[in-house]
């Protein structure tokens, strides 16, 4: 699954630089994650780095973007090949 940022986001700016795929960016009110670029850090790290640094725990799995590890790895390969 891709990750998402909930309304609890406090715009602390710590998640954006941690994303190895550049999937996190400032939105209109809070940070947002581009699900086409989010691999949950598969291919880079063992755990999603944004979740590790988030001080308010507002980055859950996006229930509307169900992807298994193989699909996330394929997305990683596509992103890094570009």
TrEMBL record:
Keywords: 4Fe-4S, Electron transport, Iron, Iron-sulfur, Metal-binding, Repeat, Transport. It holds the Pfam family Fer4_7. Residues 1-29, 31-64 form the 4Fe-4S ferredoxin-type domain. GO terms for cellular component: cytoplasm. GO terms for molecular function: 4 iron, 4 sulfur cluster binding; metal ion binding. InterPro entries: 4Fe4S_Fe-S-bd, 4Fe4S_Fe_S_CS, PSI_iron-sulfur_center, YfhL-like. It comes from the Bacteria. This is Putative ferredoxin-like protein YfhL. It comes from Halomonas beimenensis. The lineage of its organism: Bacteria, Pseudomonadati, Pseudomonadota, Gammaproteobacteria, Oceanospirillales.
């Amino acid at each position: 699954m891709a990750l998402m940022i909930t309304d609890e986001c406090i715009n602390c700016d710590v998640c954006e630089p941690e994303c190895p795929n550049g999937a996190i960016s400032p939105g209109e009110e809070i940070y947002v994650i581009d699900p086409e670029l989010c691999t949950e850090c598969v291919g880079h790290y063992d755990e999603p780095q944004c979740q590790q640094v988030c001080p308010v725990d507002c980055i859950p799995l996006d229930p509307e973007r169900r992807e298994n590890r193989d699909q996330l790895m394929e997305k990683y390969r596509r992103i890094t090949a570009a």
